[in-house]
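Tokens as discussed.
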């Protein structure tokens, strides 16, 4: 038995060494940063370029979308009123639903919007973590919950995702035609799911789950040794690729939208780890993402916690696209 264990250890050693010595992802170059005023509690939890500018959501506000006035270095959030209809039953178990309702008076609502995406027609898609549901808001402001298949949540939970409170859906992306919708489960386990539109309804085609994985990652901006759970905190769709924001690793990755496989990653750890920009509480606050041909927007949900320079406002970073563009292999 001991001899067999020794052989297994020797066989595993080259794989471990290769993982430890693999080069880190290339660093993105920071172009600008923009504090945002006017979002309650500093809770900027989703970003999307809709029409002619950036829009945002807050996970502490059930009744507003925010349009960002980008004309000055400090951006002002301008509220657009939302009137969501009653939330449909997504199939979340009783215990998770009750925890959401119990905490909602302290959070400012129960919807807990954690993601935002837009299609080419100007529809906004708001992801409710609290109810595992998606609210579509038209360009004229009409709001309707999507009729998602009940099998979506069942398959996610059967794959080990969506089992813990505050570790449910955290990211959303829609293709320009509004025909495919991707959702990201946050952590413990994290994963990617997809549904396809069939008229007014949505369905799983060949299964909803693209990826489900656990594991830990070393936080690259902590001075002490620190391992945290792998996570997804936002999704974006660009140039027929899916991009994931991975807060714990301080990186974003390009992935195959058909199976969730990672193709290339880029880091923003150097920016997040600078003394003036580092937050003492937690390992990172990057929760919002939007990718375009020229670069990427990364939004920080800081909950009014101050960073190293004392700024307690939510921050949006603009990074330049990598040399060769987002489709480059190396």
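Sequence:
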């Amino acid at each position: 038995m001991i001899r067999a264990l020794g052989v297994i250890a020797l066989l595993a050693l080259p794989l471990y060494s290769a993982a430890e010595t693999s080069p880190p992802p290339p660093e993105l170059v920071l172009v600008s940063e923009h504090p945002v005023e006017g979002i309650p509690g500093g809770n900027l939890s989703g970003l999307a370029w809709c029409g002619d500018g950036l829009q945002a959501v807050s996970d502490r506000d059930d009744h507003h979308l925010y349009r960002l006035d980008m004309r000055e270095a400090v951006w002002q959030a301008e509220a657009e009123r939302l009137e969501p209809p009653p939330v449909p039953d997504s199939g979340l178990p009783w215990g998770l639903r009750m925890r959401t309702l119990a905490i909602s008076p302290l959070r400012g609502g129960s919807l807990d919007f954690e993601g935002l995406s837009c299609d080419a027609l100007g529809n906004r898609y708001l992801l409710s973590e609290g109810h595992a549901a998606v609210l579509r808001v038209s360009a004229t402001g009409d709001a309707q919950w999507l009729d998602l298949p009940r099998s979506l949540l069942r398959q996610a939970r059967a794959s080990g995702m969506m089992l813990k409170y505050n570790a449910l859906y955290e990211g959303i992306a829609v293709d320009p035609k509004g025909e495919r919708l991707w959702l990201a489960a946050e952590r413990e386990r994290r994963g990617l799911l997809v549904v396809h539109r069939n008229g007014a309804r949505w369905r799983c085609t060949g299964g909803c789950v693209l990826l489900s994985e656990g594991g830990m990652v070393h936080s690259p901006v902590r001075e002490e040794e620190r391992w945290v759970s792998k996570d997804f905190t936002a999704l974006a769709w660009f140039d027929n690729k899916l991009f994931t924001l991975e807060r714990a690793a301080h990186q974003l990755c390009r992935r195959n939208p058909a199976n969730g496989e990672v193709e290339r990653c880029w880091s923003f750890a150097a920016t997040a780890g600078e003394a003036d920009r580092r937050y003492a509480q937690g390992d990172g606050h990057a929760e919002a993402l939007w990718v375009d041909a020229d670069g990427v927007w990364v939004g920080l949900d800081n909950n009014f916690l101050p960073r190293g320079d004392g700024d307690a406002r939510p921050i949006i970073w603009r990074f330049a696209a990598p040399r060769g563009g987002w489709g480059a292999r190396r």
